[in-house]
Amino acid sequence: MSITNSATSLGDFLTGAKYDHSGLVSAIHEYLDNIRRESGLNGFAERAAAAGYGDIVARWKADDKAGPMTEDMVRRLIAQPDLDWFAEQTGLSGPAVVQILARQLPIVIYKRAHAVSPH
């Protein structure tokens, strides 16, 4: 592990970044809303299918216990510039963003699929 990675990990630990979900969850909603505006109602599902995760995202929509995803899945499903955007929006490190997205994205997908007033 490099000094930079060690410092980032230490910073995430000291600030509790792995457990700070509020800002990132808001950013996830904004990200998904942007995809919907750009690509239509099923834009994220279509991106997931293109990355080979269409069936997984379909399970997230149907079952709130179907997650989480792996960090590798996050990196394959969400482009690096978008991951960088999440980090900028939240002040979290890149590794913390990926870890939290892996846990929270399936939950957000489920909640959005079952929301009374759609996002």
Automatic annotation (TrEMBL):
Pfam family, one: YidB
Species the sequence originates in: Gluconacetobacter tumulisoli
Protein name in the entry: DUF937 domain-containing protein
Source species taxonomy: Bacteria, Pseudomonadati, Pseudomonadota, Alphaproteobacteria, Acetobacterales
Gene3D superfamilies: YidB-like
